Amino acid sequence: MKIRNRALAGIALAASAALGLSACGGSGTPAANGTSEAAESGGITVYNAQHESLTKEWIDAFTAETGIKVTMRQGSDTELSNQIIQEGAASPADVFLTENSPAMTQVENAGLFADVDKETLKQVPAEFVPSTGKWTGIAARSTVLVYDKNKLTEDKLPKSMLDLANPEWKGKWAASPTGADFQAIVSALLELKGEAATEEWLKGMKENFKAYKGNSTAMKAVNAGEVDAALIYHYYYYGDQAKTGENSQNVAPYYFKNQDPGAFLSVSGGGVLKSSKNAEAAQQFLKFITGKKGQEVLKNGTSFEYAIASEVAANDKLVPIKDLQAPTVDAAKLNSTKVTDLMTKAGLL
């Protein structure tokens, strides 16, 4: 299986002026001349669209090893990619981390990434690195269908994600269509099956599904018996199971496998900005999180995302990547702008 990690432009930039940084993750505001408190102190600023707790684990381990201070500013993939593009060469960001690939390519297409150090790229298998070398994969997440195991058995589940558009699934499944996660899944569908098939599936989805805000909320709806199943990423289930299990006790994950569009493996990205005032430290941070210690945070921590680099195996509770039978996707042909157009046309956005 080979998964390429390049997805094309996300949400249009017209809304970027209205977007600001989320207040929950970092401190300070961008300075007009592109400097920041972190840069002045010899540290770096990370614009983080990954899970805040995961990146904090990375930061704490990196700072403990190197002594380099890291300031984190939290936001969503699209929010922060638009913010970086709006700031341009004056951005105080040193490093950008995402949950999905499209936001990385959005920044890359704006010409704002520096090349990733070759030693860092050597740590990451080629299938998780874009051919440009402007950013790298740092983690991955698998598409799954979580289902109510009190209502359904595996033999009653759809053989393909495409089957969810069939009449027998009307009113029975959920998704969070406004999120970058789901839109990345549709991007893979578009590449694998083409525009006509994608448009037809989205039309069937509109007729059949129930919309929820967020993957965890969709899973809770399955657990509560509101719907029979939900199309989400795997780690929501495993994360809840590792805690109390109260939102997943009636739920089980189903993997489509067989190179189905529903077996899509989405790659999280990391890149160093050309605007970085401490490029050496920024490159050092990216090398650390793709290195053995950084990837072991994924293996041993509570994020339940897949480790993909430095030959570190995934968390023992997860299905190994090689067994996911994910489809081969030419990420260079993914078209997130087209995806949002098609989803809007279908009445999903």
Descriptors for this entry?
349 residues, alpha/beta, 13 helices, disordered N terminus
Describe the structure.
It is built from 13 helices and nine strands. Helices cover 35% and strands 14% of the residues. Strands 1, 2, 3, 4, 5, 6, 7, 8 and 9 form a nine-stranded mixed sheet that branches. It has helices spanning 37-40, 52-66, 77-87, 102-109, 118-121, 180-193, 195-208, 215-223, 235-242, 279-290, 292-300, 321-324, 336-345, and strands at residues 44-48, 70-74, 95-97, 136-148, 173-175, 209-211, 229-233, 251-254, 265-272. Helix 2 (52-66) links the parallel strand 1 and strand 2 (70-74). The model is unreliable at 1-35 (pLDDT under 50). The longest helix is centred in the first third of the chain and has 15 residues, at 52-66. It is of the alpha/beta class.
How are the elements arranged and paired?
Layout: H1 37-40, E1 44-48, H2 52-66, E2 70-74, H3 77-87, E3 95-97, H4 102-109, H5 118-121, E4 136-148, E5 173-175, H6 180-193, H7 195-208, E6 209-211, H8 215-223, E7 229-233, H9 235-242, E8 251-254, E9 265-272, H10 279-290, H11 292-300, H12 321-324, H13 336-345
Parallel strand pairs: 1-2, 1-3, 5-6, 5-7
Antiparallel strand pairs: 3-9, 4-7, 4-8, 4-9
Helix pairs in contact: 2-11, 3-4, 6-7, 6-13
The SSE string, one letter per element, is HEHEHEHHEEHHEHEHEEHHHH
Q: Let me know the number of strands.
A: 9
Question: What oligomeric state is this?
Answer: single chain
Shape: globular
Let me know the largest β-sheet.
9 strands, mixed
* Residues in β-strands, percent: 5-15%
